[in-house]
Design a protein that fits this description.
This is Ent-kaurene oxidase-like protein. Belongs to the cytochrome P450 family. The protein is an alpha+beta fold and 526 residues long. It has two domains: 2-43; 130-382 and 423-456 and 461-523, Cytochrome p450 (Orthogonal Bundle). Helix content is 58%, strand content 9%. The strands form four sheets. It has a six-stranded mixed β-sheet. Strand 11 and strand 12 form a beta hairpin. Helix 9 crosses helix 16 (291-298). The longest helix has 33 residues, at 11-43. The protein is globular and about 95 Å long. The termini are far apart.
Length: 526
């Protein structure tokens, strides 16, 4: 302080101080211009959809709140209109999180061919949207282990999982739906979330955890609490978030969920690691086909920490429980709204399982059921946009457009799913649309392209390319097992007087089936 006082009393010192202040201010302006203003200016030639907060939003946030409110209320309309207006090109939209550049499917081939996988960063954008540092998800995102175990061992072991999934689905359906011949009117959200949580947990670790009520409650609520934390913290300046997060009730719930995950899986992880150290000496024969096993085999370095492994198990519920539950609920709503599909589906399921049992071969032969689920998903997706990536490097497209490093890109999967270019009568539900397409072609590759888990320009629900959702094959199998079990055993319908499915609930970029809807289940008597 004394040195500063001397400088200020000295005329030369005052000049030096003013000069230093000018340098600091200049550098600050240059930094803000480089970090915030220049990227906005580079993207300014790309059309903007929805309310445009203007370039000052990049610096001061002026107009940003209004643009976000507009997207939260009108996101579906904004994206559909902008997609049709800018077909074959791209546009910008301010979402609840950040501005994204929405690419047409026409860019898919170019991206697959010319853009390295490492440039399309999945985790940075996901961490920002889900507030990774405060939801503990950065522990998962710091590694690719969760991606690799879904891409390889999970998919490769699907044949071993069919029977356990069927057993688990039957277990929860028996306990949640009364066993007499009377009709049972049940909240379908509560039923399906429990069935999907149970079957997902059976894949994670086996029957012990899948029957544990404390863990199943965590599996059902964890995704919701992550979203609440992220949405709450988004309203505060980044510098304030570390001080606010610990006091949020939803953050305390996340910490409780992590504690449950540690208690549920810690012993299993320790047991498998000890078996690994002994060279996998499984007394009962072959090693288990579950996520605990695959993670222990894949984990290296810090990923072997028990807390990290527990967080990965929680992330699996975030990635899979509610997305699969929502898809299953949508399919049930469509079955109630279009009951003419019930008997053909039931006949196919009965015939195939009589011949092949509950096996992977049987699942691959359920082509009508696969088509029904895919058509339901086409019209009722879980999000408005997929393929959400943050560019690790600048990308220049063949049309001359340059997207700078740090740009968040996405694709309008819902708008594409109703594009008449790809689908005849796109707003009409046709449960066997994809079954008919399969039957009409002699090409095996074209037939496979009609399957639920297939990806392409006309089906962006799972993303595309090398970074497409690695768990989609398990999800498709799980949903088939659950729906097949229900269709064989029950007649389903809406409550008396209702014939149309409920309207979906749109919240920004999220799409949700109405959680209040009830369905009538009546046990079939053959």
């Amino acid at each position: 302080m004394e040195g500063l006082e001397v400088l200020l009393r000295n005329p030369a010192g005052r000049e030096q101080t003013r000069g230093l202040a000018v340098v600091v201010i200049t550098l600050t302006v240059l930094y803000w211009s480089y970090a915030y203003l220049l990227p906005s200016l580079r993207l300014s030639k790309i059309p903007k959809a929805g309310k445009d907060p203007g370039f000052l939003a990049s610096l001061f946030g002026i107009g940003l709140a209004e643009a976000k409110r507009d997207f939260k209320k009108n996101g579906l309309r904004i994206l559909n209109e902008a997609y049709l207006k800018n077909k074959g090109s791209m546009f910008r939209v301010q979402t609840l999180n950040e501005e994204r550049v929405v690419l047409s499917p026409s860019y898919i081939e170019e991206i697959n061919k010319n853009v390295p996988e490492g440039v399309l960063n999945v985790t940075d954008g996901l961490s920002e949207r889900l507030m990774g540092p405060f939801t503990n998800l950065d522990v998962v995102f710091n590694s690719d282990m969760h991606i690799e175990v879904c891409r390889s061992p999970l998919t490769q072991n699907l044949p071993k999982l069919i029977a356990p999934l069927r057993e688990e689905a039957e277990y929860w359906l028996e306990r949640r739906i009364p066993g007499d011949d009377a009709e049972s009117e049940l909240n379908v959200h509560e039923l399906i979330v429990r069935v999907i949580s149970g079957t997902a947990t059976r894949m994670l670790s086996g029957p012990e955890a899948s029957r544990d009520p404390e863990w199943l409650e965590t599996a059902a609520l964890y995704s919701y609490d992550v979203v609440v934390v992220a949405q709450t913290l988004r309203h505060f300046h980044p510098l304030l978030r570390p001080f606010i997060a610990p006091f949020l009730d939803s953050k305390k719930k996340l910490d409780k969920h992590l504690g449950v995950a540690k208690k549920t899986f810690r012993g299993l992880f320790i047991q498998r690691m000890e078996q690994q150290d002994r060279g996998w000496d499984f007394a009962a024969g072959e090693k288990p086909a579950d996520m605990v096993q695959w993670m222990v085999e894949a984990a290296k370095g810090s990923d072997r920490d028990l807390d990290v492994l527990a967080m990965n198990m929680l992330f699996m519920t975030l990635a899979g429980v509610h997305t699969s539950a929502n898809t299953t609920m949508h399919a049930l709503f469509d079955l109630c709204a279009h009951p003419q599909f019930a008997q053909p589906l039931r006949d196919e399921i009965q015939e195939v399982t009589d011949q092949d049992g509950w096996t992977m071969a049987a699942m691959s032969r359920l082509k009508k059921l696969d088509s029904f689920i895919k058509e339901s998903q086409r019209l009722n997706q879980t999000v408005l946009m997929t393929f959400n990536r943050k560019l690790a490097k600048s990308v220049e497209f063949a049309d001359g457009t340059v997207l700078p490093r740090g740009t968040c890109i996405t694709m309008p999967s819902v708008a594409v799913s109703r594009d008449p270019t790809y689908f005849e009568n796109p707003d009409e539900f046709d449960g066997f649309r994809f079954y008919d397409k399969r039957s009409a072609t002699a090409s095996k590759s074209e037939a496979n392209r009609q399957s639920f888990a297939a990806i392409g320009p006309d089906n962006l629900a799972f993303g595309f390319g090398k970074t497409a959702c690695p768990g989609r094959f398990f999800a498709g199998t799980q949903i088939k097992v659950v729906l097949a079990s229900i269709i064989l055993r029950y007649d389903v319908s809406f409550p008396k007087g209702q014939t149309k499915r409920p309207e979906n609930i749109y919240k920004g970029g999220l799409i949700q089936p109405d959680p209040r809807q009830k369905i009538v289940f009546k046990r079939r008597v053959e």
